[in-house]
Design goal:
The chain is built from eight helices and no strands. By secondary structure, it is mainly alpha-helical.
Length: 142
């Protein structure tokens, strides 16, 4: 039985997610996260108490501090990686649900706790597992 290496697809999805994260203005990132994860959770991930501040970022009337901006960029990159493998709905559920690779914490809360790298590792593992379960049952060209 031959196996198909899913890492190239995962790497391509991760590269595309990175491009979105670094190429998107912070106001658009805040707006996207606010729309998909909610204003309060976006504020929590950014490490701020005032959820209304997220709306100001999304409107472009103010900018987050550098550490909050970094967390938002991490969050959108991870969200887009999961979305590329599944759907926006699955990405949302993945971000807010308990994750066994993160000690049963929600990935969004781990981002808030400066654990974005661990969350990315868990996201890549999820995408690789998703890729391997969606492969055709017959192998081509062996």
């Amino acid at each position: 039985m031959s196996t198909i290496d899913t890492k190239p697809r995962t790497t391509a999805a991760a590269t595309a997610a990175h491009s979105v994260a670094v190429g998107t203005p912070i106001a658009d990132i805040a707006r996207f996260l606010q729309a998909n994860l909610g204003q309060r959770l976006t504020a929590r991930m950014a490490g701020i108490n005032d959820a209304k501040q997220v709306g100001r970022w999304a409107a472009g009337t103010s900018r987050p501090r550098p550490e909050a901006e970094a967390r938002l960029i991490d969050a959108i990159q991870i969200f887009h990686l999961i979305q590329a493998a599944e759907s926006v709905y699955t990405a949302r559920a993945w971000m807010i649900g308990m994750n066994p690779q993160l000690e049963d914490m929600a990935p969004a809360l781990c981002i808030a706790d400066d654990r974005a790298r661990e969350v990315m590792v868990a996201a890549r593992a999820y995408v690789e597992a998703t890729d391997s379960t969606q492969l055709p049952s017959s192998s081509a060209g062996s």
